[in-house]
Design a protein that fits this description.
Blueprint lengths: L1 E5 L2 H5 L2 H14 L7 E5 L11 E3 L2 E3 L7 H15 L2
Parallel strand pairs: 1-2
Antiparallel strand pairs: 1-3, 3-4
Length: 84
């Protein structure tokens, strides 16, 4: 699985690097570092709704450190368990 986090100007200002750090922490906590790759991406064309995160082909906007845990549980863990 590949997770792209927008690190462009708008998302950077809204906390993109906090999202990346929290993703890394959650992946390590669940021992998923080998199964999930995090990459940075510039401008995913949702600048007014950042931080933007793409999990495979699904795009999520308004992601922040506080709501990332729910996204992690509902999307990332479920996909890993299903073998996606």
């Amino acid at each position: 699985m590949i997770i792209k986090v927008c690190v462009g100007s708008s998302c950077f200002i809204r906390g993109a690097y906090d999202v990346v750090k929290e993703l890394e922490r959650l992946l390590a906590l669940n021992r998923l570092e080998a199964q999930v790759k995090i990459t940075g991406s510039f401008c995913m064309e949702h600048c007014s709704h950042g931080v933007t995160v793409a999990i495979d082909d699904c795009v999520y906007t308004g992601v922040n450190k506080e709501n990332l845990g729910q996204l992690f549980q509902e999307e990332i863990l479920l996909r890993v368990r299903r073998g996606e």
